[in-house]
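Annex B. Sample input.
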Amino acid sequence: MTLALPLCRPARLSPVLPVVAVVALLALPAAPGGEGGAGPADALSALVVGYCAVRLLRARRRPLARTAALVLAMPVPGLALAAMNAVSPGAGITGLGRYLQIFVLVPAAVVLLVRDRRDLRMLAWSFVALAVYQGAIGVHQYLTGTGATYQGQDIRAVGTFGPSDVMGMATVVSFGLVCAAGLALGRGTLRVRLTAAGCAAALLLPVAVSFSRGAWIATAVTLTAQLVLAGVRRALKAGAVLVAVCVLLIGGFGVGTAMLQERIDSITRVTDAPDQSVTDRYTMWAAATDMWRAHPLTGVGLKGFPEYRDGHASLALSSGSDTGGAGAAYRRQPLLSPHNMYLLALGEQGLIGLVCLAGGWLALLVCALRGLWRARTAGGRGLDCALVACGLLVWHLVDFVYADIGGPSTVLTAVCFGLAGWWALVGAGETTPHASTGTPSAPTAAMEEAALR
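Annex B, continued. Sample output.
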């Protein structure tokens, strides 16, 4: 009887499961006619932050080490200054809350809730599962003509996000592809690596039929970086497989339609013969830069871009973009952001805000790359986690040139920064062996203790 009791105890549930639930909630369809704002996943992310705070109060421990707290809190001074400079108190409070959610609070909660590399892998696989689900819906929309409207045809894959958030599915699938590539290039078991590689290959198609040039560029740069960081020989082998898959998709299954080819060609001629969407983007970029010149240090304030846009934009800017299809009626969607996170921060938060915000991202990337180097020198322990973390950071740093925050999928950006932050600030230490014995330096419990020290 006494010997059976320990075997009957239920396994301890991982504290990262609420974060997995946040990811899972993005599988729910968007509300018809919604504006693409906060959704159920955002509400649950607030509960996750509260849950993390309760755990810390019960444990009575200092939540983060000094370096981790400094890096995660870097955006706060610039955000606070920009909130005080907002066009109205309501706009300042709303903008401050959104930025803190995405870049400070939720990432910090994820860092504190992830206990070890197994939790990080669980979170990465949840990204892959969501991407496969959304990608399958997107491919079905493309093949059956039930997607969002693109050049007069309802073929654009948007998943469950609808035409009001055409970047949602592309973003989610890109995250899953990056996570699957990192898991496949790691040192896991053969079954795990083959499964991850199969998922990565399958996710190439929904990324393609999303018709998102920004997602294509960010994903291509990130996959190349992951291949190089995994090692030259592995990069050559994986690159050959990737080329074979692309040839099969384009030649064998006829994915290379005229519209897709035209969209790809448009990337190389955005300055020679830009379409209206590119013209609008350049015009809004110029408007954001002009706002910064007028208010170089503090910007025009949070949520101030829509208010100041018309006063700084040229006549080349259109009134909005046309959206429709995927079960929604045609509507004209206003252009309320420059679709460039760096210029949005520069225009609304000024140089101070941009330095604080982007400085924190670069600090995370440097720490994550140092951890990846330690993982490679330690025999590849944790290499998959390092590649996932570095990949997600690189993807965001590239994609932010063509996009900014907004829409239901934005909460995944917060989870991504938290996942990468755990590896960069805490988890990379698991790969460091003892100098004398070469055995792992600390068990899981010790790493959890280090995260809370």
